[in-house]
Amino acid sequence: MSLWMIFDPVWSPEWLWLRYATLLRATLILLLAAGAATLLRGASASARAMLWAAALIALLPLPELRALPLHWSAHVIPSALAAPMVTIGATMVAQSSPAASTFPWTSVIGVVWLLGIALLAGRLLWGWLSFSAVAACARPVRDPAWEALLEESRLILRIQRRVRLLRTDAVPVPLTWGTLRPSILLPAMADAWPEAHRRAVLLHELAHVRRLDCFLALLGHAACALWWFHPGAWWAAHRLEVERERACDERVLRAGIRPSDYAKCLLDIADEARRMPATGPAVVAAGLLRRPSLGERTRAILDAPTAPRPGYGRIGPALVFAAAVAAVLIVGSMRIAPRPQVWWATLQSDDWTKRAYAVENIARFGDPASVAALESVLTHEPDPYVRAMAAFGERLRARSPTPYVRFGWGPGVEPAAPAALEPPSRF
Predict the structure, then answer these.
(1) What is the pLDDT of residue 306?
(2) Is residue 125 part of a domain?
(3) Using an 8 Å Cβ cutoff, are 217 and 288 in contact?
(4) How large a percentage of the chain has pLDDT more than 70?
(5) Is the pLDDT of residue 90 over 90?
């Protein structure tokens, strides 16, 4: 899906058509994730976090996957969802005129889409650079008590990598930063915490390190930047944030911390943080690592079962990767288009461009109803261009009729993309 198509009034309708078809596939991925999350309500938060991470990872390469050689086509979109496709396709027909003077609204939509991506990508980059600056300026913690608790917590969670323990005045609460060189950033007031609070904090932050949550957070923000216009992407990112915090809380409880003690630890730290707000670049950077509401977390902790559910251990990242690949291959290779009934109804439109576009698509089917529709156009259609399109469609249908669902191997072209035919010229 080349970006140059956005700025060409002739090709921008096709770009928007393909973008809308990709949006429907993205919606399908998110709906499947939401349904699976509902079924996993009784499972661990780690399983639900893996699910939402897989959904967001699958959204990242989705726009460019129409070139997959292995694909399957499905003409299943109902009329309510197909209306934008009909409008965009009719615009493509109108733009095919050398004297076309219609307003290039499809190009305007494309430019707005690019500006949204640029704005959010810049915000993401600025946050990453700001937090990197905070971590670079933080002071290493040399306290033997902290170092002993860090080593003990690493052994409990079976973390082999070295994790730096840093102190900074720029953050009001403990945070984890970095994937290749992970660091735990402690606020200046951390030295006043009792040992129980220190242990709980380190277990929680090390659980983030073990789960690669910093990296997954960046992927989630990247998916939101690419799909900023889709509310489902923002909802999936929010659910990932909630479930990854719950997953780390569950890991703390499995280490032997009592739920009431852990909830008190969180409330005490939050109360201190309110009196010491963050300043400087951390205010912007903290948006990269948003945390769900404290009340929601403490309720989940206090309502946790006496014996917390087991996590997924080292196979967690592998499960996330496998789920993402499966979603990409199944949904990304799907080529969806409106149902034939949509095109039959469009033949009744007063707009000749919509009727012409409907004929172009009806010609792809060899079922009796589609054949009858084409014959009706040849007999009763007043517009000569639409009749010529129907005659052209008759020749095309005789060569390669298209079933409702088809599996194939070859260049992945949308089954109803406007540029797929070369109809006779109206002008």
Answers:
(1) 55
(2) yes
(3) yes
(4) 82
(5) no
pLDDT, averaged across the chain? 81
C-alpha span between 340 and 349 (Å, rounded): 15
Q: What's the domain range around 181? A: 120-316
Query: Tens digit of pLDDT for each residue in 323-347?
Result: 777 777 788 888 888 888 888 889 8
Domain-located, residue 387:
no
Distance of CA 302 to the CA centre of its chain: 31
Residue 359 has pLDDT above 90, yes or no: no
Q: Are strands 405-409 and 70-77 parallel, antiparallel or unpaired?
A: antiparallel
Give the Å distances, CA to CA, from 107 to 13, 101, 225, 297, 344: 8, 14, 20, 45, 29
Structure tokens at 289: 């690592």
The per-residue pLDDT for range 21-40, each reduced to its tens digit, is: 999 999 999 998 999 889 88
**Euclidean distance between CA atoms 201 and 188, whole angstroms:** 14
Collapsing DSSP to helix, strand or coil, 400 comes out as: coil
Residue type, 125: L
Q: How far apart are CA 24 and CA 227, in angstroms?
A: 12
Q: Is residue 229 part of a domain?
A: yes
Q: Is residue 252 part of a domain?
A: yes
Burial of 332 (0-12, 13-18, 19+ CB in 10 A): buried
What is the rounded CA–CA span in Å between residue 173 and residue 138? 14
User: Is there a contact between 216 and 53 (Cβ–Cβ < 8 Å)?
Assistant: yes
**Cα-based torsion angle of the residue sequence 155, 156, 158, 164 in order, rounded to the nearest 10 degrees:** -60
* Phi and psi angles of residue 279, each rounded to the nearest 5 degrees, phi first: -130, 170
Domain count, the chain: 1
